[in-house]
Amino acid sequence: MPVRIRPAVAALPAYKPGRPAPTGAAGPAYKLSSNENPYPPLPGVLAATEAAVAGMNRYPDLANTAMAAAVGARLGVAPECLAFGTGSVAVLYHLLAAVCEPGDEVVFAWRSFEAYPIAVQITGATPVPVPLGPGAVHDLEALRAAITPATRVVMLCTPNNPTGPAIAHDELEHFLDAVPEHVLVMVDEAYVEFVDDPAAVRGLEALQGRPQVAVLRTFSKAYGLAGFRVGYCVAEPALAAAVRAVSLPFGISVAAQAAVLASLDAEPALRERVDALVRARAGLRDGLRGLGFDVPAAQGNFVWLPSGPLTAAHGEAFAAGGVVVRPYAAGEPGDGVRITVGEDAANARVLELAAGLPRP
Predict the structure, then answer these.
(1) 7-41+268-354 — its CATH code?
(2) 74-88 pLDDT, tens per residue?
(3) N or C end of the chain: smaller count of CB under 10 Å?
(4) Cβ atoms within 10 A of the Cβ of 345, count?
C-alpha cells in the first residue's frame, strides 16, 4: 500500500515561478516575470556575505539576534515583535500554521498573490477568494461581507500582486474597525518601498493598538536579496512568538543574515535605486496607457496588462520578442499579464512589443 498523502496536499494548486529569460530571440533577452530587482547587490553586501561564508561550518544564529535588532531599530519596533523566515511567503505559511486549523476560513482578494490559496489549503483551512473591484483594487466591503463565524484570517496584499494598486490607508482603518477582534488581518507589504502614493496603507501605523494585525515585509524586492530569501512579520509579541515557534530552525543562513545587515546600512543607495525604478514604472505605465491599454494604478515594481482572453497570446508575443513576462491565464475575466519593471532597455523593448499586440 502506498504512503497516504493528505487530501489537502494532493489537491494543492501548483505555484508557477516566473519563466527564465527566453532563448532563441533575436537580440537581447530579458526576464521580467518574477518582480526581481534588476540592480546588483547594494554597496557592502558582497563583502559582508563573503566574510560570513567563511563561517559556514557553524550554524546560523537561530534567534536572528543582530538582524532583529537592526530591523527593529529601523522600523521603531521591539525585536520581540518580529519573526523571520525564508522570504515573506515562508512567514505567511508560518503565520497561517500558527493560527489556522481544519474548519477555519481564510478570506482574501482574487486575483492576488498566487501563494495565498496554496498556503491556506496546506493548513487544512478553506480559502475564500473575493473578486477584486473595478480598477483591480481590493473590494474591502465585499471582503468584510465574506467574513463568517468560521473566518480566522483576512489577507490583504498592498500593493496587490499582480495587479498593482495599493489599498488606501483610511479605507483600511474603516475596514479594521468593522472586522471582529478575533480575526487576524494580515497586511502583506512586500512592495512597500516602491509605494509613492501618500494615501496608501501604512501598515506599521495600522498595527498600533491593534493586536489582530500582522504586517509582512521582505528583503527580496527593493533590497535585491531575492536569492537569499529573507522576509519577516511585525506583530504583537505573543503572535510573533507563535510564528517563530512553528518556523524552520536555522532557516536564515549566515550569509543571508549578513546580507540583510549590510543592506540596511546602504539606505542612501537603496533609495536612489528605488526612486529610479519608480520613475521607470511611471514611464512603463504611461507608455502602455498611451498605446490604449487600461493599466491600473501601479505601486509595486511591476505593471499589469489586463489582457483578458488574449493573455496567453500576449505572453507568447512578448517571449518571442525577447521579453519573458508573467501571464495569468486561468480563463477568468480578470486574466492578464504582469510585467516587472526592469532595466531601461528592457522597459523600452516592452513598449516596442506592446505596440504590436492585439487589443482585448
Answers:
(1) 3.90.1150.10
(2) 999 999 999 999 999
(3) N
(4) 11
